Amino acid sequence: MGSIDRACISGFLCRLCSEMHRIVIHIYGDQGRKLCLVEKINGYLPITISPTDPLPKTICETCLRRVEQHYDLLMRLTRIKQGNFPKIKKVKFIKKNLGSL
Question: What is the C-alpha separation between 58 and 69, in angstroms, rounded?
Answer without folding.
Answer: 18
